[in-house]
Amino acid sequence: MYVGGIYRTIYVFVTVHHLMAAQAAAPNVRDNLIKMVGKNEQVPPGGKDNPFLQEFLDIHSRPKVVLETREHSMFNLKMDESFEFKPPIRKAPFSSTGEPWPMPAKYVSNKDKLLQLNTASFKLKILNKNCDILEDAIKRYTNLISSHVPEEHYEFIYNFDEKTRAFREHEMQDKYQHVTEMGDLEIHVYAKETEIEDKPRFPHRGILIDTSRHYIHKHVIRDVLDGMAYTKLNVLHWHMVDDNSFPYQSEVYPKLSHSFSWFGYPEIKSTCYTRNGKAVRGPIGPINPAKNETYEFMSNLFNEIFDVFPDEFVHLGGDELHDSCWATNPTITAYLEEFGNIPQVEARTSNVQNYINKAIGFYFSRLIKTLKDTAEQKQQRKNFIMWEDVLRNTEKVPSESILQVWMGQPSNVRVLNSKGYKALYSSCWYLDNIEQYPMWSKYYECDPSPYSSDAEEKGRLLGGEACLWAEFITTDTLMTMMWPRSLAPAERLWSPRNVRDIGSAARRIEEQRCRMINRGLATGHISGPDYCIRPNGEYLRKTSEHTAENKVPGVLDRVTYHS
Description:
Keywords: Hydrolase. Belongs to the glycosyl hydrolase 20 family. By secondary structure, this protein is an alpha/beta fold. Helices cover about 35% and strands about 15% of the residues. It has helices at about 5-20, 25-40, 50-60, 130-145, 160-180, 220-230, 290-310, 330-340, 350-375, 390-395, 410-420, 440-445, 455, 480, 485-495, 500-520; strands spanning about 65-70, 75-80, 105-115, 190-195, 205-210, 235-240, 315, 385, 400-405, 420-425, 460-470. A 7-stranded parallel beta sheet has the order 6-5-11-10-9-8-7. Helix 1 packs antiparallel against helix 2 (about 25-40) and helix 7 packs across helix 9 (about 350-375). The longest helix has 26 residues, at about 350-375. The protein starts with a helix and ends in a 45-residue tail after the last helix.
């Protein structure tokens, strides 16, 4: 039984495609289509009541269908050449079964030998060194294994023959009716006999989230961490604050998060001037590099931050600085001439950008020294990560700093290395850059290294990060934008450089997508129309065990509608 109006809408849409494909070879079929669509009447799916469909099938022989890959970005169903009707049917690759993501350094699997797992007695053992992190991980993954969902995938036969279609539907109906009428089933979990030796290619395998442009709920950030754990990503680059907002609640400077970021403290902001020398009314300009109060402010703020975040590395940013205001302010230009040896006259030339670059260099040089002194006073070791832009403006970047490439080729890594700096790479992994077709294959084929061997890159290129900027991302869309596309850079940063088979990756990434969904993570599409076998009823309990007050009602429930 079907609802006529809904079925008619779908059928008319399909027949329009039929019309475009069949009009040259079958004018009589085309005429029938025009008449049928024009009448806008309900059309049954097949049989003697639909002579059009029978005529269509008589004219066009039954096709042979294979899955083809087009430029590694689209996966389509390809019709046999003898079949005149070739509809553009898009389909994702069929999922692998029991394959890992990311691919280990050594992976040998005997598909002909299965081992039955007794989930009640199955244990994971830690050899040699142990720590609380490993013990907690063992608990999480033991729960995951005991809750394993057996998956069943079918190599569907695509066919326009109504008789065959009806037979297969009846066959599947019988099968599932038989299963549902059985009593409680004893489910056995099997694993292929597999040998794995593993190690990461790079030590730094990161992902950037941005909580300054849109509010991101903390339960979503925890989900991001779960996804990272499932894919062997180990660094969360948290772009917490920006000019848009300051969601870090500072005890030293509380107005930062109460009054539009830095504008809560106007005494450290710059005043901009017009060409006529008049002060500009309205929004206050960038941070003032010519005030000692600015650097005292930063020292006090980071004194607090260093305690809240005990990590050795702090990212200072440094990209896309818009500081033309500095060149218009006579107090700032006079200060920079006296203490930075930057002539004021350069601020009034046609090449004002050169002056601004020098001014940015002065500010960052003094800021880095200020923060280094702050850390030393606290007897803490702190080093800095910065975007590659900073080095273009000043040479006074400590040699132990790490520079991150975001708008250049891997050759930029070699340039930074030649100057004595270690590097990270992100240019090709900007997840918020959206194209019409799936981009994961581009992410997958991008290699961050300009070197031809592991020995050359070791200690020079530390790894990379996938970046998800949030100008157009919200707490409701972050996870489905991040996953499963982040799986591609995750494998590139973990697996050996010779793991490049896009066909194998296409099948394994489908399986990992379903794996993450079945573990309760909101996960988007990846290669086109596909499906995941789901457990009946509620989702598996999430390993992070979020408390009720930390959840937004309904967010996780919406995951069940993904397909």
